[in-house]
Amino acid sequence: MSTTDTVRRTSRPGSRPAGRPGTGAARRGIALMLPAAILMAVLTVVPVIAVLQRAFSDTEAFSRLFDAPNFGRIMLNTLVWTLVSVVGAVLIGYAAALLLRSPYLRLTGAWRGLFMIPWIIPGVVGATVWRWSLSSDYGLVNHWLIQANVIQHPIAWLSNPDVVLYAVAMIQIWTTAPFVMLMVSAALTGIPAERYEAARLDGASGWQIFAYIVLPAIRSTTWIAVLTLVTWALNSFTIIWVMTSGGPAGASTILPIQLYQAFQRGDQSLVSAIAVLQLAICAVFVAIYARAMRSDLEELS
C-alpha cells in the first residue's frame, strides 16, 4: 500500500483524526469524574478553607494554644500515642499477614475472619468493653494476669498516669492492626511465586527472603498503611474519650481531645487553631509519603 493510499484512508470522513488518539474517551472520562470532583471539593476543600479563615481571623487563639501550661504535655502525649499505636499496628498486622500465608496454617479464611472482628466492631462498643475489661476493681485482664502469676496485684490501667496512655494505645492497635493485615495480605498475593522458588534454589534463608523480596515488594503498600494509621491516630477521639475522657489529670489528653474540650466550652477560635495545627502535622506526613513514593518511582524508572 502506497503512502498516498494511507493518507486517503486516514482522511476518510468519520474517521478519527491522526495524532489525537483517545481524545473523545479522555473527555468522557473527565466528564464522568467531574461530579465526584465537585462533590469532593465541596465536602473537603470548602470546610478546610472555612477553618483556615476562622483560625487566622483571630490569631490570639494560637497564642492561647501555644502558651497554655499543658500544651507541651498534650503534644508529647500525641507523639507517644501516634508512635506506639502506629508501630504496634504495623508489627502485629505484618505478623498476622505473614502467618496467614503459612502453608502449615489450616482454616485460613476462618482465622482471617476472626482477626477482622476488632475492625468491624463499632468504636464506642469496643472502647466500652475494654474499659470494663481493664478496670482495676473487676476487670478480666487483671484477673487473668493474676491467675497466670504474671502480676501479684491489680494494675490501675486507666487511673495510673504512667500507664494509661499505653493502655489506650493498645486498644487503638487492637482496632487498626486488621487494616494493616488486610493491606499486607493483598500486597503479598502480588509477589510471583517464581521469586520465592528462585531465592530458595539460591539457598536464601527465610529472613533473607523476607528482607530482600517481601519488604521491597510491599514497600509502597507499607507507606500507604503507615500514612493512613498516622492520620487515624492524629484524629482519634472515640477510644480515649470513652475510656478515660483524657484523664487522669490530662495524662491521656491528645490534640483531638483538647479540640473537643474547647468545643464544649464554645471556644470556636481555639477549636479552629487546634484544627489548623492538626492539619499542619498531617501535611508533614503527607509530604514525607509523597517524597518516598517519588523516590520509589524514580528507582523503578
Would you mind describing this structure in some detail?
There is one protein chain. This protein has 301 residues and is mainly alpha-helical. Helices cover 74% and strands 0% of the residues. The chain has 14 helices and no strands. The protein has helices spanning 3-10, 23-57, 60-66, 71-100, 108-120, 123-133, 140-147, 164-188, 193-201, 206-217, 219-234, 238-243, 255-264, 268-300. Helix 4 (71-100) runs antiparallel to helix 11. The chain is globular and about 65 Å long. Mean pLDDT is 85; it is low at 6-11.
Layout of strands and helices, then pairs:
Layout: H1 3-10, H2 23-57, H3 60-66, H4 71-100, H5 108-120, H6 123-133, H7 140-147, H8 164-188, H9 193-201, H10 206-217, H11 219-234, H12 238-243, H13 255-264, H14 268-300
Helix pairs in contact: 2-14, 3-14, 4-8, 4-11, 5-8, 8-11, 11-14, 13-14
Name the features.
mainly alpha; single chain; 14 helices; globular; 0% strand
Strand content: under 5%
Number of strands: 0
The low-confidence parts are: 6-11
Q: What does the largest sheet look like?
A: none
Number of helices: 14
Multimeric status of the protein: single chain
From the N-terminal CA to the C-terminal CA, the straight-line distance is: 38 Å
Secondary-structure element series: HHHHHHHHHHHHHH
Give the CA-based shape.
globular
Mean pLDDT: 85
- What structural class do helix, strand and pairing data support? mainly alpha
Q: Helicity level, as a percent range?
A: over 70%
Query: Radius of gyration in whole Å, from Cα?
Result: 26 Å
